């Protein structure tokens, strides 16, 4: 089936098998391998992207369902060559260990702070229930998100 | 994991969806129950009819009671001012489904059609006297939530029928709450209890109680309701209700190696007390 999905600002037209998951479309059709496949059962959040601005686990949506939608992946988060503040904060706070969960963590956190500037540490920890870090490196991840949330509240 | 191969049809209206569905077809809305099942090959429908873009299935309206389109997402229900005002327990339950990514796309229609015993919304729908509105090729019908949920992953839906909306009475004069004991990893309900209390001064005129998670389907609990009604919800009444709820659910218990049936049965009484406290808080 023919689909036209805007990914990181570029319309991508492809003929896909209807059973193609959005994460497969991104990784295998578009070579956007920043989006990871972790658990593949919509629990771990490694495949998190934004679909029309909303956080989505891209292993649990067919590409045909995203036809006409606007998708942002980790590769599209930076603007004009500048890292998104969440990317910078993960860098500054070393919010990663092996890095596998990082793209999903950053995509989920960026949407969360956009909608909840000034979020508390407790709110951040609760929100990130949908993103699992198998290294258990949550401490610096939460620190990174908190730094951006605090800055967003102050601006 | 790739799902099985299937034919894909995108329906623009309920009529088109009903005329498109085949014997081996399934309706696809958000896909957050169906696609995981298909990826695990627990189901392999030969056709998916995508109802995710049908305007008639969207939206939440308040007119005396609540009418929630089958395509309303958990997030839309959890954050709806109308749902919060008329049935706070449902807003709370929908806000506890999965995580934000799941709530953004999973729908109430898909949730109840799937009928996962550990899911949160069905327990509230049964307690609060919701009605499931269904359309099929031969016309429409409505079923009370209590009769809609038949058994483990089994509902009253017939082949080719589509849930169009869920209706709820206005519970704004009631004290209602949903409290769950979430599994520490999956956050699914090990036990979930919903209560809806109609108070008359300090006394409970009527109590509606349902349990999920501990059971193979959401179960209405007449014994616990009788133990609470007509009391001031004092300790004696709560203890009697916590005892009665064990009998109410005894025919429907579910369990696993970590949380066996007997444990969940006991916890149902504990969480009933917590739900009553939350409703009154």
Q: Notable features of this structure?
A:
heterodimer; A: 155 residues; alpha+beta; Ubiquitin-like (UB roll); DNA polymerase, domain 1; 2 domains; 5-stranded mixed β-sheet; 5 helices; 35% helix; globular; B: 281 residues; Uridine Diphospho-n-acetylenolpyruvylglucosamine Reductase, domain 2; Uridine Diphospho-n-acetylenolpyruvylglucosamine Reductase, domain 3; Enolase-like, domain 1; 3 domains; 5-stranded antiparallel β-sheet; 4-stranded antiparallel β-sheet; 34% helix
Q: Which SSEs are present, and which pair or pack?
A:
The complex is a heterodimer of chains A (155) and B (281).
Chain A (H helix, E strand, L loop, with lengths): L1 E6 L2 E6 L6 H8 L18 E4 L2 E4 L12 E3 L12 H8 L9 H14 L5 H7 L10 H17 L1
Parallel strand pairs in A: 1-5
Antiparallel strand pairs in A: 1-2, 3-4, 3-5
Chain B lengths: L6 E4 L3 H7 L4 E4 L5 H6 L7 E4 L9 E4 L1 E5 L4 H5 L2 H6 L1 H7 L5 H6 L2 H7 L6 H7 L3 E6 L2 E6 H4 E3 L2 E2 L6 E7 L6 E8 L6 E12 L2 E10 L6 E2 L1 H7 L6 H14 L12 H20 L1
Parallel strand pairs in B: 1-3, 2-3
Antiparallel strand pairs in B: 4-5, 5-10, 6-7, 6-10, 8-9, 11-12, 12-13, 13-14
